[in-house]
Write a structure and sequence with these properties.
heterodimer; A: alpha+beta; Copper Amine Oxidase, Chain A, domain 1; Immunoglobulin-like; Aminopeptidase; 3 domains; seven-stranded mixed β-sheet; 30% strand; elongated; B: alpha+beta; two-stranded antiparallel ribbon; 5 helices
């Protein structure tokens, strides 16, 4: 199945003289007052978050749109600034504007303007706000060619404007892999924000000139991902996948390919012969070390894990991501970046020991807490590990959940808010094992408990790890040697846990 | 010669413009005031009424990340709910001081404490406390544990506590510590025990 779309593309009746009659003076005064008040109300209403996105070969950008008298306006200078040299100057009610070598003159409250000496009519009156010249959004497609910016393709209902041949082609294909996946191939790298909710995976393309021109629906011959829809609104394009299971998106090919699939069930590495590629559970781009099949486990301990191990041993969760940046460790270092790096290190260390790993997040994407818990529970792992980072304090802190004493659960279902209750003792055991291993590495380590979601919603042993710098230098948390040391300690502890479950002497 | 009626009209319009300007100036001042309040670093005054009493406050110390029980003498009103509010306001005052062991954002306040049913307390903090709170598991946990432990150590009979921000439910304090549910006091005791510090 193929889904392919190529994209290449004032009041004119001024009031009579003020001085000819007292009635006119009164009317003019009232009009002035009303106009003044209306302007105030309009300015207030301008706080809504309407956006227009402009895509050009030079730059892709989004601007705020303001509503005045039911007409959407945008700053002309801001529209053209990324495309060339602009200047604008207000002189009384006139606004003189220059783009490249073309000059234009606008009058406040008038729809007619002059561009290069020729008259041009806007679809609404020109406005000036704090020195910013505002023109109706709907005029852009006809106005910009007068400044030499052409050709223009404008998706007016979604406020998406394409200049020249800016545009990204893409195809969507159902792959016959196991589990089935939808592969999106783009003609240029894309960076959508991705969010998930029960039954849906949503990709929003704000900065990417992705366009089909209108809503479209595609049906796939698969029960897990039966359909996807494409739509555009408020300066962005959106692809929404419906699904009967939690979905994950994997970026590859330098951002040109996105694969959407349900998380696979991993086979333990020890069971996988070296010649047979192991199912890729992780969602790293192909070619990266951890996503390629691991030939032979290279554990620090020689004993391999027998075949009765869970199909996914550990779910590793890099906390935060996407718009949710976590703590600002420094001005330029958000927590989400450190957690992802540490999670990748941990995955690598676990895989070296022959333990299969499911990474919940392997890119900078939004992932809700409910979704994290749902995916972790669906994978039935032996352990869930979430990683955090902090600039406060020092060393490593290993957390177990905070829950009231468990009440016996006699039903079939486990309460969502206390799903962890029955696993608390096992979680504490994991915490203590990790504490011991990190201590062996001369790291400053503490065991604590914390009210931290989604720990309480996960029905398997859980642990949260928060790394802080070892000394005064906050950037130490991003040091790969430190992260590797922590990851190796945690992986050793988890390997021992698995070995003890299988009755193997580590 | 400008006719007299035009002079009067011009004067009336000028007066109108002046009045509008004054009105706008006042409105501008009113809009600016909440911002000034948020950046006001002065500590919130504890209730002055009521006899002074010795209480135990569990004060958070960022370094080394522990809670310490500290005796404090503060004026507390007679009502149980007012006492709870007085206690927590005194605790927040400590965190707003210059050399605080666990600094809270300027303008942090306890708006109210409600003892809504036997055994349940609801602490309502203002937005300044949560919006600008430092982010991290431990640093957020210290704030929460300190408030709950100080409250339950001095107000008997509480077995669960809820924390609201500006009267509304909130998912986390600053991205980590979960505020979406009630805190079980016995579970918080366990958490405080692990924090240590006595």
């Amino acid at each position: 199945m193929r889904w392919n779309k190529a994209f290449t593309q004032g009041d004119r009746n001024a009031p009579p003289g003020l001085f000819h009659a007292s009635g006119c003076v009164r009317k003019a005064a009232i009009k002035g007052l009303l106009a003044f008040l209306a302007f105030g109300i309009m300015v207030d209403a301008a706080g809504t978050e309407k956006k227009i996105s402009i895509y050009s070969p030079a730059s892709n950008y989004s601007l705020s749109v303001m509503d005045f008298n039911g007409i959407e306006y945008v700053g002309l200078l801001e529209v053209l600034e990324p495309l060339g040299t602009v200047s604008g100057k207000a002189q009384g009610r006139q606004w003189k504007f220059r783009f490249q070598r073309r000059e234009a003159e606008f009058t406040v409250g008038k729809a007619r303007c002059k561009i290069g000496g020729k008259d041009f009519d806007l679809s609404g009156n020109f406005l000036l706000q704090n020195g910013r010249g505002l023109v109706p959004v709907t005029s852009l497609s006809t106005l910009l060619p007068h400044f030499g910016v052409a050709p223009i393709t404008f998706h007016s209902s979604a406020r998406r404007l394409f200049v020249g041949n800016a545009g990204t082609q893409f195809t969507a294909e159902m792959s016959k892999s196991t589990p089935p996946a939808v592969v999106l191939n783009f003609s240029a790298p894309v960076s959508p924000s991705i969010s998930t909710e029960p039954g849906r995976l949503r990709m929003v393309f704000t900065r990417d000139p992705l366009a089909l021109g209108g809503p479209q629906t595609l049906n796939f011959p698969d029960k897990t991902i039966p359909s996807a829809t494409y739509d555009e609104s408020n300066g962005a394009a959106e692809i929404v996948f419906t699904s009967s299971a939690p979905l994950m998106a994997k970026f590859s090919n330098n951002g040109r390919t996105i694969t959407v699939a349900a998380p696979a069930q991993a086979t333990p590495q020890a069971q996988t012969p070296a010649a047979t590629p192991a199912p890729v559970v992780t969602n790293l781009p192909p070619g990266s070390p951890a996503a390629t099949p691991v030939p032979t486990p290279a554990p620090s301990n020689p004993t391999s894990i027998p075949a009765t191990a869970p199909r996914v041993f550990a779910v590793v969760d890099a906390s935060h991501g996407g718009d949710e940046r976590g703590a600002a460790l420094t001005d330029r270092l958000p927590e989400k970046d450190v957690t992802l790096a540490l999670a990748r290190q941990l995955r690598q260390e676990l895989q070296k020991r022959g333990l299969s790993v499911l990474m919940l997040r392997d890119a900078d994407l939004n992932l809700g807490l409910e979704q994290r818990a749902a995916t972790a529970n669906a994978a039935h792992p032996a352990i869930y590990v979430c990683v955090h980072a902090s600039s406060e304090g020092n060393g490593v802190r290993v957390y177990s959940p905070v829950l009231p004493p468990a009440t016996p659960n006699r039903g079939v279902f486990v309460p969502w808010d206390t799903a962890q209750a029955a696993q608390m003792t096992r979680s504490d055991d994991v915490v203590n094992r990790i504490y011991g291993e990190l201590q062996k590495r001369q790291l400053s380590v503490r065991t604590l408990s914390a009210p931290l979601r989604p720990l309480n919603n996960i029905a398997t042993p859980v642990v949260a790890i928060e790394i802080a710098p070892r000394g005064p230098d906050v950037l130490d948390v991003a040091s790969s040697s430190y992260e590797q040391m922590v990851a190796s300690g945690v992986a050793d502890a988890l390997w021992q846990l698995q070995a003890s479950r299988q009755g193997i002497q580590p | 010669m400008i006719p007299r009626y035009l002079q009067i009209t011009a004067a009336v319009l000028l007066g109108g413009v002046l009045m509008m300007s004054m009105y706008l100036w006042r409105m501008r001042g009113r809009m600016a005031r909440p911002i000034a309040r948020v950046s006001d670093a002065r500590p919130v005054a504890p209730p002055a009424s009521g006899p002074s009493e010795q209480v135990t406050l569990f004060v958070a110390y960022d370094n080394p990340g522990i809670l310490r029980a500290q005796a404090a003498t503060i004026a507390l009103p007679a009502g149980r709910q007012q006492r709870a509010e007085g206690l927590l306001r005194a605790l927040v005052n400590i965190y707003l001081e210059k050399d605080s062991p666990h600094p809270l954002p300027a303008g942090s306040e306890i708006r109210s404490v409600y003892l809504v049913e036997p055994g349940t307390a609801v602490i309502d903090t203002n937005a300044a406390l949560a919006d600008s709170h430092r982010s991290g598991i431990l640093v957020e946990e210290l704030t929460i544990a300190s408030m709950i432990q100080s409250l339950t150590a001095n107000i008997g009979g509480l077995n669960r506590v809820k924390i609201l921000v500006d009267g509304k439910n909130r998912d986390t304090l600053a991205g980590h510590a979960d505020l979406s549910d009630f805190f079980d006091v016995s579970a918080v005791n366990g958490m405080v025990e692990k924090l240590g510090g006595g």
